[in-house]
Design goal:
There is one protein chain. With 489 residues, the chain is of the alpha+beta class. It is 35% helix and 22% strand. It contains 17 helices and 23 strands. α10 (242-249) packs across α15 (438-450), α11 (308-317) packs antiparallel against α13 (374-398) and α12 (325-332) packs across α13 (374-398). The chain starts with a strand and ends with a helix.
Amino acid sequence: MYLLGYDIGSSSVKASLVQRESGKCVASAFYPKTEAPIKALKPGWAEQDPDMWWENLKLATADVLQQSGANPAEIEGIGISYQMHGLVCVDKEGKPLRDAIIWCDSRAVPYGNMAFEVLEADTCLSHLLNSPGNFTASKLAWVKANEPELFAKIHKIMLPGDYIAMKLSGQMNTTVSGLSEGMFWDFKNNCLSKDLMNYYGFSEDLIADIVPTFAVQATVNASAAAELGLAAGTPIAYRGGDQPNNALSLNVMKPGELATTGGTSGVVYGVLGEVNYDKLSRVNTFAHVNHSAEQTRLGVLLCINGTGILNAWMKRTVAPEGIGYAEMNELAATVPVGAEGLSVIPFGNGAERVLQNENPGASVHGINFNIHTKAHLVRAAQEGIAFSFAYGMEIMRDMGMQIETIKAGHANLFLSPLFRQTLANVTGATIELYDTDGAVGAAKGAGIGVGVYKDSDEAFATLEHKATVKPEADTEACKAAYALWKKYI
């Protein structure tokens, strides 16, 4: 028997087929093979055609079925992970009225900032746990103000994962986790935010029916089954945004656990067991996939823009020509902790919420022409990235999070022994590395939703552990380098 997971990204759509009994991925595929286009009609805009996601999903589904030779009738459940914060507007027939405004579109910032000012910070933070910012609700406010005729035709609004679930089933629904990432959820009253809905002039009729994150939310209808080669009636049993889903994929479900990624940008996602927020709004807080009225589980999200992209820039620009990342890591390890007083500030890829939206850029401090080499620069860059993670984790600790374990996929920056040891040393946390991905996590989420796994511990019991990194006994040099680094931000 099998479970099917989809990961609807802005670059591609991935499908993974997991054998339920072994927990192993038996086939995976992604489309398109080159990065999916993003339309930028004006500076700061970013849109995609929702039906492009569907077409790529069809290709990925056909590929995994062909690779595996699986009987579609043996697929017990479907799970969906998706790019967060997007806005899809559909009519009564479920057809998109415009291209989706996706996560990296910044046009709605003024609308969210004005809402934060009018509704006041204390109200927004204590109820929404965030500033309305550039999230889905503010994107919808932009549509209402700038495309009023189109706004009047909207039957329901959806997140990208909601749209794909609707295409699979013909049913329009959403989750509390999804509503919270769009800034529609009032955590104090455990309902749709009347304050924000009234301020923006939104009818509650625009919101799709709410279903549990782990449950049979709908089933594949005959039309979608014919398009995809799936069996009609297959349950759609899990849905989560990409960062909560990444945490699920690492079985990060309990307070104090963290999931991290270190790709082009870096993300730290920690689970909080009580309703709380950062008074300076330096992190985002959403309902985690296992949040409920009876059990508070919040995902505290920290995004750091200048992580893997800085490491790639160092490889391209500073490291000796022709060497790979592994050799670059070895080069960096030839100089001592702290790079002999050299500090690199990594924020060279845009403003940082963790720094209260200040944009210090990237910079190098303390350079000594007599001693510092390429190796020092490469080491200081990786240490600076690790320090930026640690800085964000200090905010999480201030919110009441007890950080003991950091889980990550064995990929990207976490392939660097220097980076991961620096992160362990400066935070005092143990790092656990696993082989996993979002589509596999979504598939196992569906297994929880249909009840073939009793909980996440059973679903991820077969998660392949790659390495454990513990803080070293002597971390004073690392902590001194971190203290010096903080003086420059």
